[in-house]
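# step 3/5: fold
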Amino acid sequence: MQKLFFLFSILALSIFSLKPNHAKEETSLFEEKIFTVTSEQDYIKKGTLRWAILEAKAWRQGHPFSKVRIRFDASVKRLRISQGPLPDLESGMTTLDCSHPEGRVLLEGYSEDILTKADLGLRISSSGNTILSCHWTGFHQGAIEILAPRNQIYNNVFGYDPQYEESKALGNLRYGEPKPNRGAGLLLGEGAWASHIENNHFVALGASGILLKNRVGGENQFFKNYFFQNQAE
């Protein structure tokens, strides 16, 4: 009887000693993974925005309960997107956070060949993503295209006009003045429903600030967005 009691005591102590570690593992499942952009170059190598988006996708595939945030080092102010559209946000639960101590990081579509590059900035093909405080300009088709439900676009600027205070870009003597957007700012296509679009500025665009394409979904919400000298409005 004493031996049985002794074995039971050891088993009980083992179970209770495992609880803190188990709780820690459960908590870690829901932690936010952060990838930091440290380079203004537009290539797939460590530290670039393209690298960060691909790393976020790989991380989400291995950690389906974890959120991801892509943020920018304070030294990164202006990126020229010159190699075609950025990789799609296709794994969900990812925040692209362009907040900067001086304002917003500028993501500028640029190419010497207008027909093949800088047509679209970013395509969102998964749910639960947030685009926060970015400045998009210089794209010919549109800055962002949403093709999936339940995404949030908050506090961004689309387009450029020096007369409009919110669209003033962070300085860069190398690249000079930013180019305006020739197309729309935000495209909502098939599959985009229950989107939350709030507190964005659409400035001097070559088309509508927000373009609803054919077969766009319902329940999209628009709050406190501002439009300034867009050609189609």
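# step 4/5: annotate
Confidence is low (pLDDT under 50) at residues 2-27.
# step 5/5: archive (pending)
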